[in-house]
Specification:
The chain is 42% helix and 14% strand. It has 172 residues and is α/β, with parallel strands linked by helices. It has a single domain, classed as Sugar-phosphate isomerase, RpiB/LacA/LacB (Ribose 5-phosphate Isomerase B, Chain: A, 3-Layer(aba) Sandwich), CATH 3.40.1400.10. It is an enzyme of class 5 (isomerase).
């Protein structure tokens, strides 16, 4: 079964998003089930709306991984992190991408097309996609930190009634 993934961008990241979509589908064998930006104008001044939409769809378990591409990857991830259970990280190299997944079980990464070339972007994507969080082998500290993050979300954010999965805080 193909892994389902969402991808979005602003107008600046549109061309790179198209390249990444092709890479995800043709090389990584993934199914892109969310791609709301069909032309560059669709992404103009929409990062907050798209971050909210992607976060909600992840919460509803339409897909569990998301990628956003803009100039830096920062603004979108800041907005996505306002949602209960979402862990979004702007990554700029393979190591931070790998650790975003292995240490934090991050569901969303933000990529900067003004920071990374396409070949390096592929290395970053591989590091994030090829190193899934596994509760059986994860460091105890990472598992404890996820539970602390959940407590923090419970304290500071409203958990929507439509949450359809455990958001990766614990093993299923």
């Amino acid at each position: 079964m193909k892994v389902k993934i969402g991808i979005a961008c602003d107008d600046i990241g549109f061309e790179r998003k198209e390249e990444v979509r092709h890479y995800l589908e043709e090389v990584k064998g993934m199914e892109v089930v969310y791609d709301p930006v069909k032309v560059p104008a669709d992404g103009q001044n929409t990062f907050a709306v798209l971050a909210d939409d992607m976060a909600t769809r992840i919460q509803k378990d339409e897909f569990r991984l998301g990628i956003y591409i803009c100039g830096t990857g920062i603004g979108f991830t800041c907005q996505a992190n306002k949602h209960w259970g979402i862990r979004a990280v702007a990554v700029s190299n393979p190591y931070t991408a790998q650790r975003a997944r292995l240490s934090n079980n991050a569901q969303i990464i933000g990529l900067g097309c003004r920071v990374l070339g396409m070949e390096y972007t592929k290395m970053v994507l591989d590091a994030w996609l090829d190193n899934p969080f596994d509760f059986a082998t994860a460091r105890e500290n990472s598992k404890k930190n996820l539970l602390e993050a959940k407590k923090n979300d419970d304290l500071l954010l409203k958990k929507p009634d439509y949450i359809a999965w455990n958001m990766g805080f614990e093993a299923e």
